[in-house]
Amino acid sequence: EPSRRVLLLGEGNCSFAASLCRARGTRVVATCYESQEEVAGLLRAAENIGRLKEAGAEVLFSVDCTKLEDYFSPEERKFDCIYFNFPHCGRKAGVVKNRALLARFFRSSAEVLTEDGEVHVALCKGQGGTPADQPRREWHNSWQIVAVAAGAGFILSNVHPFKAETIQGYNCTGYRSQDKSFCVEGALNHIFTRSTPLSYFKPTSCEVELESRKVSFQVPQVLVDKINRGFLELNSNHPVQTIKEKLTEELSQAFALQNTDCCLPLLRQGHLSAACHSNIFWIVPNPEETPSTEEMSNGLANAALFSHVDFCEDKDKSGWANVQEGCDISKWFYLRPSLLPYAQEIIERGTFLPGMLHVLSGPVFRKCLIAPYSLPVFHEVVFVCAVNRGTENSCIQVLANNIKTSIHSLHQAVSSFKLSISLQEATSFESTELNDFAAFEYQLNKIQYLICVETGPASSCEKRFCVGVVRTARYELGSSDLGFVFVSLNLDLLAMLICGISDWRMLWTPDTRFLRQFPRGELKLFKSFSLYPPSYVHDVSFWVPDGEQLDEVAFHTIARQVSGETVVSIQLVDSYQQPETGRRSLCYRLTFQSCDKALSSRGVAEMQLLFREEIKHRLRLTLR
Question: What is the rounded radius of gyration, in angstroms, for the C-alpha atoms of the chain?
Answer without folding.
Answer: 29
